[in-house]
Amino acid sequence: QVQLVESGGGLVQAGGSLRLSCAASGIIFSINAMGWYRQAPGKQRELVALIAIGGSTNYADSVKGRFTISGDSFKNIYLQMNSLKPEDTAVYYCNALRRGNNYWGQGTQVTVSS
């Protein structure tokens, strides 16, 4: 089992920045990738950013150039969010993929006011 705990959400004005953190514990060896997803009210959960073993990253088009994912050996991952927009408002979830199984954190709310 992998346990994930997110932190760092909050309320910020448009144009501001936030940094999300995700701490992984439990059986974290053999994690293949970790990422951040978000879900806005009435919408499906969507991938925001992904970091794979080896360090390769992938971003949703809507956040490229504004968000940066980073991590330290999959013990902690971070999402630096700059130039935030109201449409970034959502619950952000940390995800870990390990041996074909997905693990999720409880989510952290990010609200961007205009």
Which series of helices and strands comes N to C? EEEEEEEEEEE
Helix content: under 10%
Q: Based on helices, strands and strand pairing, what is the structural class?
A: mainly beta
Radius of gyration: 13 Å
Principal-axes geometry comes out as globular
Oligomer class: single chain
Amino- and carboxy-terminal Cα gap: 40 Å
Beta content: over 45%
Number of helices: 0
Number of strands: 11
Low-confidence stretches: none
* Chain-averaged pLDDT: 96
**Major pleated sheet:** 7 strands, mixed
Would you mind describing this structure in some detail?
It is a single chain. With 114 residues, the chain is mainly beta. Helices cover 0% and strands 61% of the residues. A hairpin with a 4-residue loop joins strand 5 and strand 6. The termini are far apart.
Question: Topology of this structure?
Answer:
Blueprint: E1 2-7, E2 10-13, E3 18-26, E4 31-39, E5 46-52, E6 57-59, E7 67-72, E8 76-81, E9 90-98, E10 101-104, E11 108-113
Parallel strand pairs: 2-11
Antiparallel strand pairs: 1-3, 3-8, 4-5, 4-9, 5-6, 7-8, 9-10, 9-11
